[in-house]
Structure formats: structure tokens, C-alpha cells
UniProtKB/TrEMBL annotation:
Gene Ontology CC terms: cytosol
Keyword set, alphabetical order: Kinase, Transferase
GO process terms (BP): glycerol catabolic process
Pfam family, one: Dak2
InterPro entries in UniProt: DhaK_L_YcgS, DhaL_dom, DhaL_dom_sf, Dihydroxyacetone_Kinase
Keyword Nucleus appears in the UniProt entry: no
PANTHER family assigned to the protein according to its UniProt record, in alphabetical order: TRIOKINASE/FMN CYCLASE (PTHR28629), TRIOKINASE_FMN CYCLASE (PTHR28629:SF4)
GO molecular function terms attached to this record: glycerone kinase activity
Coiled-coil ranges (or none): none
Protein name: Dihydroxyacetone kinase subunit L
Keyword presence, Cell division: no
Record-annotated DhaL domain positions: 5-197
Organism of origin: Mycoplasmopsis agassizii
Protein's gene: dhaL
UniProt xrefs under SUPFAM superfamilies: DhaL-like (SSF101473)
Length: 199
């Protein structure tokens, strides 16, 4: 289970991992997007990292709201609003909850998928971050094994490599989008694996 102090540490770890993999994310986006996914994600999470210690004694919902609003304010392109809404819209799930447990994490995943589908106008197999969020949400309903879930998340990311993009800038490339991992799926995996490790 994850309390407020642990949640702050999770987001700090995510921010550091995004920074370490910024160039990898940007290179994937250079091949099928705007060449800025890594830079944008790093900018957003660097802002989170610089301020989140101020929230370590706040409740879970306030932490999620802070992270979401920070990402919306600092990340450009489509990713900022999408990731931002994932955290802002799910914040109400954690109102007055002392810890984030497995049941609440399932509700978070379900809320995230709804937000991504609503604001991203995408679905499973469109070669977007939903190609990670949707199958994980279904898998988590009956499988709580951490190592297995982390392995599955990596497989969801790799599976985007063989798909043709149907949404976003990558869709303009049509068949040429095949052969490259979706950068949004990779950044999603960084976020989700850290939660899975700690919950």
C-alpha cells in the first residue's frame, strides 16, 4: 500500500527515470512524431520533482491533482493534457483515503483509460499509450503478481512496434509508422511500472 509520503517518492522516481530516458523517448518521437516527447515529458516531470516535496504531508488526492496540473502546464503537445487529465480526473478516487491500495489502483487504471479515450479519441491497437493502459487495466483485475505485471507492461510496449499508427501525428506516416515503438506507450510504462513495484 502507498501512503502520501510513498506517493511523493514514486513520482520523484518516475521523474528521474523520465530524465534518464529523455533521449530514448525523443528519438522514438523523431521517427514517428514531433521529436519532442522526451523533452516535453522531462520538462513536465522536472517541474513535478522540483515542487512535490511541498506535498508530502498532503492527502493523496492533492498530490495527484498537483502532478496532473503540473504536467498540463509544462508539457506541450498532446501528452501534457492527456497525462494531466489522467491524474487530475482520478484524484477524486483518493479523497479521504489514507493509502493507495490494490482496489484503488484498479479504479485509478479504469479512470485513466476513460480519460485517455475521451480526450485522446483513441482506442486499443491504435498505437498509442492506450495500448499499454487498456490491457494492463484488464490484466490487473485478476493478476496482482508484480514481476509478471512488469513483464507484461514491457510486452505491451514492444507490441506497438509492429502496429500501424491510427491516431496522432504518427498516423500520417501510415505503413511507415510500423517498426517503431510508440513513444507514449514507453513513457506510460515508466509511470505504471513504478506504481506496480510499490503498491
Amino acid at each position: 500500500m502507498i501512503n502520501n509520503h510513498k506517493l511523493v517518492e514514486i513520482f520523484k522516481t518516475i521523474a528521474r527515470e523520465i530524465s534518464l530516458r529523455k533521449n530514448e523517448l525523443t528519438e522514438l518521437d523523431r521517427l514517428i512524431g514531433d521529436s519532442d516527447h522526451g523533452t516535453n515529458m522531462d520538462r513536465g516531470f522536472s517541474n513535478v520533482l522540483s515542487e512535490i516535496d511541498n506535498y508530502k504531508d498532503k492527502d493523496l488526492s492533492e498530490i495527484f491533482t498537483f502532478v496532473g496540473k503540473s504536467l498540463m502546464a509544462k508539457i506541450g503537445g498532446a501528452s501534457g493534457p492527456l497525462y494531466g487529465m489522467v491524474f487530475v480526473r482520478s484524484a477524486s478516487i483518493f479523497k479521504d483515503q489514507p493509502v493507495l491500495n490494490q482496489e484503488l489502483f484498479q479504479r485509478f487504471l479504469t479512470s485513466a483509460v476513460a480519460s485517455l479515450q475521451t480526450y485522446g479519441q483513441a482506442n486499443y491497437l491504435d498505437k498509442t499509450m492506450l495500448d499499454v493502459w487498456i490491457p494492463l487495466t484488464k490484466e490487473y483485475q485478476h493478476n496482482k503478481n508484480k514481476m509478471d505485471l512488469i513483464k507484461q507492461i514491457d510486452e505491451y510496449v514492444m507490441a506497438t512496434k509492429v502496429r500501424q499508427a491510427l491516431k496522432g501525428r504518427a498516423s500520417y506516416l501510415k505503413e511507415r509508422s510500423i517498426g517503431v515503438i510508440d513513444p507514449g506507450s514507453l513513457s506510460s510504462s515508466i509511470i505504471l511500472k513504478e506504481f506496480i513495484k510499490e503498491i
